[in-house]
Design a protein that fits this description.
mainly alpha, two-stranded antiparallel ribbon, 75% helix
């Protein structure tokens, strides 16, 4: 074989987003279910409610023990699966030359990892502390941490999704079309505004929760589309 004998060079497949897309779809479907459980739980305990009221949060953590535990149990698994999928898609997008979109997918991945702590606290920490005879002080600390991480995660998700999906609208590297990314960007903008409002002490927690649910639906559809994409053809 000579250096010019190209037919003898082993072929390799171009990166395919199918596995990453499947993980994104599966994880996002789980987040949709988690969002529904959050929605039917007492908002004072399960959302970063503003202004903060300790008595209502304590009562909500007890009243919503069942749904909050279910949300946490499903959420910690779904968040990890979504994070793995996001990391795989980010790698492929970067390999295809779109650094900004890759940065957006990395931010989505980091947001998913942060949400594992949020879901772990809502499912396994807040209610036991609320039920403990001397758990009031610890509950206060963990609830404030829960609120801060919830808002930080939503901001990271909103910024990351907006960056990744706006790049898809401008110059698609994943063949997602225009409509689905545009809906995702709109949900991201709403989530960012609602999160900032909560950080300023305004009662916008329902908007935060709704934006996470809407973004999860969009990513479930995006993941399904990526997972069902045709197999990549071999490249030299």
């Amino acid at each position: 074989m000579t250096v010019f004998d190209l037919d003898a060079i082993p072929q390799r497949r171009a990166p395919s987003p199918r596995v990453g897309g499947a993980a994104v779809a599966l994880g996002a479907v789980g987040v949709v279910a988690v969002s529904a459980l959050y929605a039917i739980s007492p908002p004072a305990a399960a959302l970063p409610a503003q202004p903060f009221q300790l008595a209502e949060a304590l009562r909500g953590a007890l009243d919503g023990a069942t749904t909050m535990h279910a949300a946490g149990a499903i959420g910690v698994v779904s968040d990890i699966v979504l994070a793995v999928g996001g990391a795989l898609v980010a790698t492929i997008v970067v390999q295809r030359g779109d650094i900004l979109a890759g940065a957006g997918w990395i931010a989505v991945t980091l947001a998913s990892l942060l949400f594992t702590f949020v879901d772990a606290m809502v499912g396994f920490v807040l209610t036991p502390l609320a039920a403990a005879a001397d758990g009031g002080g610890a509950f206060l600390g963990f609830k404030r941490l829960f609120d801060a991480l919830f808002l930080l995660s939503t901001i990271a998700l909103s910024v990351g999704a907006a960056l990744a999906l706006s790049r898809e609208i401008a110059a698609s590297s994943l063949a997602l079309g225009k409509i689905l990314p545009a809906v995702g960007v709109a949900a991201s903008a709403a989530g960012l505004l609602a999160s900032i409002a909560c950080c300023l002490g305004l009662p916008a927690e329902q908007g935060v929760g709704a934006s996470v649910a809407a973004s999860a639906i969009v990513f479930a559809l995006i993941g399904w589309r990526l997972a069902s994409a045709p197999r990549a053809t071999p490249t030299r």
